[in-house]
Structures are given as structure tokens and as C-alpha cells.
Design a protein that fits this description.
Oligomer: single chain
Keywords: Amino-acid biosynthesis, Cell membrane, Cytoplasm, Dioxygenase, Iron, Membrane, Metal-binding, Methionine biosynthesis, Nickel, Nucleus, Oxidoreductase
Protein name: Acireductone dioxygenase
Distance between the termini: 30 Å
Helix content: 10-25%
Low-confidence stretches: none
Subunit structure: Monomer. Interacts with MMP14.
Order of helices and strands: EHEHEHEEEEEEH
EC number: 1.13.11.53, 1.13.11.54
Largest sheet: 7 strands, antiparallel
Number of helices: 4
Membrane topology: Peripheral membrane protein
Bound molecules: 4-(methylsulfanyl)-2-oxobutanoic acid, nickel (II) ion
Shape: globular
CATH topology: Jelly Rolls
CATH superfamily: Jelly Rolls
Structural class: alpha+beta
Number of strands: 9
């Protein structure tokens, strides 16, 4: 099962997992209150998986591509890795399904504290529009499916980006007002 925890405040070894001490685990239910949804899927049969198709249909994830994040396949790899690591938000959902290897998705909670979500093969996550998040590779390589509702827009906005409607809506959602 996917593991998630509150992070420490240390900026040392940014590529390593950062768990607060004592451990402060975060469950799927808490992630759901942040609008973060999770599924475990059968990555070895992603090309023909009724469960994946069902989720895509229900959530209207019409667009799909598979990317391999590694320095030989991803143009501007170093630059992208740095960008992934910067706290940012999008005006649309971010949906990722890990097909090979692993990485860390970090999201901010209601009190602006970082939660680290350790994602590996078979883990699928949806981050809502307007949530601040960042990403770190677990190895120097990861194969992931990117899904999108409609035509993909990969634009991101580094923190602080609080003026965007998507962010304002998300804050309302966190406060139970949306
Ligand atoms: C993004 O916007 O692509 C990210 O936050 C990185 C996650 S998956 C490589
Ligand atoms: Ni992102």
C-alpha cells in the first residue's frame, strides 16, 4: 500500500525521503480530504486493463501518454528535474500512474505542511487543480502514464500563485466552502 508521511523541515539531501521524527504517517483518508485520490492498478497489463478504462471513463481522462523520465529520453532532463522539485500548482488536475520505478510526490496540507507520498509501480494518483506540490525521482529513471481531462496543458506556476481561480477554488474546497 502506498506510504505517506509528514516531512521534516530539513533541506539536506533533497533527493532522499524526508520523514518527520517521530514518524507521522498519513493515510488515504487524510489525502482524500486534500482532494488527493489514489488507486492501485495492475501496471503489467496497463495496455488492456478494464479497471484503468473504468477510472478513465468515470473521470473523463480522455488523453493519455507514457513518458520515461531519464536523461537519455527526456529532453532537458536536468532542467525538468529541477522544475519538478520546485513547489508549483496547475490550473487542472495532475494524474500520474507509475509503470516502472518510483518517486516522491509531495503535497501541502490544509496548514501548509508538506506531506510526502512515496509512489511506486502500480500507484496512481490525482492531484487536484490548485494544490501546491512537487516531485522527486526515487531512481534516475521512472516510467509514468500521464492522463488528462481534455487537451493537455502542462503549464505550471511556482509558489506563490494564490491569485489563480483554480487556487482560490481549491482553498475554498479545503475550507469546506466549495
Ligand atoms: C508535473 O507537473 O509534471 C509534476 O508535478 C511532476 C510529476 S510526474 C513526473
Ligand atoms: Ni505538477
Amino acid at each position: 500500500m502506498v506510504q505517506a508521511w509528514y516531512m521534516d523541515e530539513s533541506t539536506a539531501d533533497p533527493w532522499m525521503p524526508h520523514s518527520a521524527q517521530p514518524d507521522s504517517p498519513v493515510g488515504l483518508e487524510q489525502l482524500r480530504t486534500l482532494g488527493v485520490l489514489y488507486w492501485k492498478l495492475a501496471a503489467d497489463k496497463y495496455e488492456n486493463d478494464a479497471e484503468l478504462e473504468k477510472i478513465r471513463k468515470e473521470r473523463n481522462d480522455s488523453w493519455m501518454e507514457i513518458i520515461t523520465i531519464c536523461k537519455h529520453t527526456l529532453p532537458n532532463y536536468e532542467e525538468k528535474i529541477k522544475m519538478f522539485f520546485e513547489g508549483h500548482l496547475h490550473l487542472d488536475e495532475e494524474i500520474r500512474y507509475i509503470l516502472e520505478s518510483r518517486g516522491y510526490f509531495d503535497v501541502r496540507d490544509k496548514n501548509d505542511k508538506w506531506i510526502q507520498i512515496s509512489m511506486e509501480k502500480e500507484d496512481t494518483i490525482t492531484l487536484p487543480a490548485g494544490i501546491y506540490h512537487c516531485f522527486t525521482l526515487g531512481e534516475n529513471y521512472m516510467k509514468t502514464m500521464r492522463l488528462f481531462v481534455g487537451e493537455p496543458v502542462w503549464t505550471w506556476y511556482n509558489r506563490l500563485a494564490d491569485h489563480f481561480t483554480a487556487r482560490v477554488q481549491y482553498v475554498k474546497f479545503l475550507e469546506g466552502r466549495a
